[in-house]
Amino acid sequence: MRILVLGAGAREHAIVLALRGEEVRHEIFAAPGNAGIARDATIVELDPDSPAAVTGFALANDIDLVVIGPEAPLVAGVADAVRERGIPAFGPSRAAARLEGSKAFAKRIMEAAGVPTGRATRARTLDEVAAALDAFGAPHVVKADGLAAGKGVIVTDDRDAALAHAETYLPTGPVLIEEFLAGPEVSLFFLSDGDRVLPLSPAQDFKRLADGDAGPNTGGMGAYSPLPWLAERFGSEAAFVDLVTKEVAEPVIRQLDVEGSPFIGLLYAGLIVTDAGVKVIEFNARFGDPETQVVLPRLDEPLSELLLAAASGRLEGRARPRFTDDKAVTVVLASEGYPGRPLTGRVIEGTDAAESVAGVHLAHAATRVDGDDLIATGGRVLNVVAVAPTFAEARDRAYDAMGRIALEGGQFRTDIAAQA
Ligand code: AMP
Ligand code: GLY
Question: Would strands 27-32 and 2-7 be described as parallel, antiparallel, or unpaired?
Answer without folding.
Answer: parallel
